[in-house]
């Protein structure tokens, strides 16, 4: 293993525990011909075990020093290194049936999840290590404080599973928070299709930007109390009490109304 000083600006916390690395690889269960892309491979702790079970592997890494070290450590015909920011990476250019994996830096985890969701049609599944609190929000059900914008918009695209927790001691440097491995599997058929997905995103964002308000007040720019009641929704509820299907119903009603105008 090469020595490397973790860089705070890249949110580098390297997974070093061999036992947890093995558990993660087993959860991914890669097969030789799978099209796997590792986001943020770092010093290659998971890259090596993945390559043992794959014909080839693509990685996306922003740190130029790490890119050079990965290129020196692994054969170029089997490891393809893409130097750059994963938040700007065009996963769609890599084909279909992609399997995305990675220990995502905490400082970009939410925008990275939304970026990934925009390529859901190209993805077979994702296995991401994230802050445990983020995974709890991703998988949250309506009615709890963890349920919010991230829950709704990811569950619109994916079935989200929290697989297992990973303690701080499994990383260097040791983070101050617990982590967890999440699996995201795109829905074969969307459970609640939106007529206008950008409008759905706007409605959800508006609702949870004022989550302590009632639905009536939070969505006042979009629907009246009477219109919400016509959709079977109690305007006195808070946004966290609405389901994904409820938000889609609201967005579709707004889209239909706009189309009739």
Report the CATH architecture of the largest domain. Answer: 3-Layer(aba) Sandwich
Query: How much helical structure, as a percent, in the residues?
Result: 25-40%
Largest beta sheet, briefly?
7 strands, mixed
CATH superfamily of the largest domain: Vaccinia Virus protein VP39
* Count of helical stretches: 10
What is the 3D shape? elongated
What is the topology, as strand order, of the major beta sheet? 4-3-2-5-6-9-7
Label the structural class.
alpha/beta
DSSP strand (E) fraction?
15-25%
What is the topological layout?
Layout: E1 14-15, H1 18-28, E2 35-39, H2 47-51, E3 57-61, H3 64-73, E4 79-83, E5 98-103, H4 109-117, E6 123-131, H5 132-139, H6 149-157, E7 158-166, E8 171-172, E9 179-186, H7 197-209, H8 215-218, H9 225-230, H10 244-260
Helix pairs in contact: 4-6, 7-10
Walk me through this protein's architecture.
- The strands form two sheets. A seven-stranded mixed sheet has the order 4-3-2-5-6-9-7. A two-stranded antiparallel ribbon has the order 1-8.
- With about 260 residues, it is of the alpha/beta class.
- It is built from ten helices and nine strands.
- It is elongated.
- Helices cover about 35% and strands about 20% of the residues.
- It folds into two domains: about 180 residues, Vaccinia Virus protein VP39 (Rossmann fold), CATH 3.40.50; about 60 residues, Orthogonal Bundle (Helicase, Ruva Protein, domain 3).
- α4 packs parallel to α6 and α7 packs across α10.
